[in-house]
Amino acid sequence: MNKLTLIVFLLPFLSACLPKMSDISLLTLYKDDIHQGSVLERFKINQLNLGMSKTQVQDLIGSPSIIDSFHNNQWDYINYSTLHKKDNIHYRLVLKFNDDILVHINTTNIGSLSQLTDKEKEAENKRISYEKKEKITKEKTLTKKVSENYAK
């Protein structure tokens, strides 16, 4: 009987230590951000120009999400992302080519892409220039080797 009395006596005090119901709602499961499709950056999309070749476009923004077999001259870049369990980002970039030359750029909800900060733009420009220098160096080395082999 003493145990029962002790439990009945301590129960109100222990229940006072429990969190409020509003605090319990803070204890939710972690949900990771979900990215589906092509993740594009506004900085790179702004570099697209009519008249670019398919190779140049692919080097700039990557492979398309969809190349429709019925429309070989149309590339679709589609993205659907859920961030922080509530922020949904959905955009679609459609590029149309004529004889492997970019002739039309259609953007839907591209405004949902965040702007890059000046630091990010600077870092991206440095990375691009480094890659270009690296490519030129490789081409020069290859040309030199080929000319040496040809001279022999």
Q: Helical amount among residues, as a percent range? A: 40-55%
Count of DSSP H/I helices: 5
What is the total tally of β strands? Answer: 5
What is the CA-atom radius of gyration, in angstroms? 28 Å
Q: What structural class is derived from the secondary structure elements?
A: alpha+beta
- What's the CATH architecture name of the largest domain? 2-Layer Sandwich
Organism: Ruthia magnifica subsp. Calyptogena magnifica
GO molecular function: protein-macromolecule adaptor activity
Main location: membrane
Membrane topology: Lipid-anchor
Walk me through what this model shows.
By secondary structure, the chain is α+β, with helices and mostly antiparallel strands. The chain has two domains: 31-115, Beta-lactamase Inhibitory Protein, Chain:B, domain 1 (2-Layer Sandwich), CATH 3.30.1450; 116-152. 42% of the residues lie in helices and 24% in strands. It contains five helices and five strands. Strands 1, 2, 3, 4 and 5 form a five-stranded antiparallel sheet that branches. A hairpin with a 6-residue loop joins strand 2 (66-67) and strand 3. It is elongated, with a radius of gyration of 28 Å. The protein starts with a helix and ends with a helix. GO terms for molecular function: protein-macromolecule adaptor activity. Part of the Bam complex. Belongs to the BamE family. Residues 37-105 form the Outer membrane protein assembly factor BamE domain. Pfam families: BamE.
